[in-house]
């Protein structure tokens, strides 16, 4: 059953509240907002600049800098950043969250000889974080590593595509 239909039939007074530490939706904002408005009008409320600072699982309460919110179901996502392995290796350079890379080779800007792929990287402009892009990063890194191992420079014009 479609979520909208479930809510309308089984939980007509339900509401989905999205608390986001970011000031606004960071990926495909207009698309998401249009879908929320068209498909879930009055059911979804988005609040930017609302970082969750505490969670009380027993009372099902979230705390932000501005208020406490009680819910029947809580789905809390931790702050997004590169993994602990990247942090302990000294690879995180961007916003204290992501690994900066040379986009011609995916080589870390912090540690030479280390190539970083996918969600651990600070995305290049118009390059979303997606499985398809991570696959493209792998191909880019492999081609660059082969060139480097053979004493050549990686391509100055690599081709990366996206299907999102």
Features:
164 residues; elongated; single chain; two-stranded parallel ribbon; 2 domains; 9 strands; 3-stranded antiparallel sheet; alpha+beta
Outline the structure in words.
The two termini are 25 Å apart. The protein is elongated. The protein folds into two domains: 3-70, no CATH class; 84-149, no CATH class. The chain has a three-stranded antiparallel sheet with strand order 3-4-5, with no helix packed on it. A two-stranded parallel sheet has the order 1-2. By secondary structure, the protein is α+β, with helices and mostly antiparallel strands. The model has no long low-confidence stretch (mean pLDDT 90). The chain has four helices and nine strands.
DSSP, total strands: 9
CA-CA gap between termini: 25 Å
Number of domains: 2
> How helical, in percent, are the residues?
25-40%
Q: Strand pairing plus helix content: what structural class? A: alpha+beta
Measured by DSSP, the beta-strand proportion falls in 15-25%
Spatial arrangement of strands, main beta sheet: 3-4-5
